[in-house]
From TrEMBL:
Catalytic activity: Release of an N-terminal amino acid, Xaa-|-Yaa- from a peptide, amide or arylamide. Xaa is preferably Ala, but may be most amino acids including Pro (slow action). When a terminal hydrophobic residue is followed by a prolyl residue, the two may be released as an intact Xaa-Pro dipeptide
Organism: Streptomyces lincolnensis
Protein name: Aminopeptidase N
GO cellular component: cytoplasm; extracellular space; membrane
The keyword Hydrolase is assigned to this record: yes
Entry EC number(s): 3.4.11.2
Cofactor requirements of the protein: Zn(2+)
Pfam families, alphabetized: Peptidase_M1, Peptidase_M1_N
SUPFAM superfamilies: Leukotriene A4 hydrolase N-terminal domain, Metalloproteases ('zincins'), catalytic domain
Amino acid sequence: MSPDTRPRRGLRLTLAAAIAMTAALTAPAAGAAPATSRDSVPVPGAPGLGDPLFPLDGNGGYTVDRYLLDFDWQAPKTPFRAKATIRATATTELSRFNLDFAGNTLHEVTIDGTPAEAVREGDELIVTPWLPLPRKSTFTVTVTYTADPTQIRHRDDAIEDYGWIPTPSGTVLYPQPNGAKMVFPANDHPSQRAPVTFRVTAPTGLTAVANGRLVSREPLTGGRERWTYDSEQPVSTQLVQMAVGRLTAVDRPTTNGVPLRDFVPDELVDRTDEYLDLTPQHLRWLEQRLGAYPFKRYGVLVGDTDLGVALETQTLSLVPKADLLGTRVDAERTLVHELVHQWFGDSVALRTWSDLWLSEGHARFYERLYSEEHGGDSFEAAMKTAYTNHNLWRRDFGAPAEPTEPNLFKRMRYDGSALVLYALREKVGDETFRKIDRAWVTKYRGRTASTQDFMDLASAVSGQDLASFLRPWLYGPTTPPMPNHPDWVATPVP
Ligand SMILES: [Zn+2]
């Protein structure tokens, strides 16, 4: 949080303000005992969690226990009624708090059923309750709004378009990095996770799908149906998925106890079947290295869109159709990459956006390792190329763990970060490297972890100080020598 970004209150005199004013006017005279103890003075929740790259993302003063999202979905680019019901717990006594919320048309905010003052400032929704919320109290915020499914933002890096992505028959979501707030009011930071229940009504004949388990499917009057999904496990807002469209559910054989169900645009089922049938093989290959898959189910949502990039939305990866209509090698690279993320990035969540190298580096590392074993390019050759370019990438995109907001999803976070893991493997040997990664996804399963946590764990598992080895790889201006490859040269940058 930076102090100069604190929201200003709206000017209109609200009931809460009137109560505060009355309290001030009737307060005991100076010298009298204070009416409340010091630690129970209500304070505003911070407008952001102070992430170095996105300081206003996420919010302070409370944690979300559960989201219940009601979407009365109509048609691909048609606004529709929506309601978010957010159960949260105050971590301090709150005079007000923020939600991240962008675009859409706000109607009403209530807290525990009572209307609350709500002021919008940029992507912040500032909510002031009737009375302060006591520390440790649980409260329920409802936000009703008209959702705008045409809202898209753009980044000039690997993300490209994010937010709502329309398809010919519906929509898919691309919330990474902070586009969930375009879909629902949220505590929108990767370190903040909560279970989500989705209740989506849509015209009969279309399919709605979201993270987790289909709880129920009910016919409604007027040619509509309601689909209810439960994420089952907490999910970061950047990894939420909700899609509607002419989709066919395709079950693959349950693999190592994990049910596999893909959602494919009807007309693409035959054309994508061959590659999507490989998921059981991918899952077995990854479980051999990383241990048990961390969620209760998995599937691929094929995006009927020109979207350039796939996304590891939790338990249901979004993969653009183009990735499945080319060569097998390319398709498998994408499919394995997103599946790896279920361990790295989804199960083990990012503490801050500067930890992204851990998630993208591992996804690229195993993607290339798998690909080399299955007809793709040489892993070592790719790493040698990355090494050659590494100083250049440092200059242009920041060191692996030193991104800036504009260069976050540039090449340094992918091959440039896989190279750090490759260097680690060269340093400690394959057996120890496997132990480190396995310990990482086991110890931090379902938790949030940082770069420092990774350095500490790698050191503990290997019995040597790997922080002093990794730090120059991850931070600073110059790429260190590659262990075991004295002939590799990182092009110097003047
Ligand atoms: Zn990735």
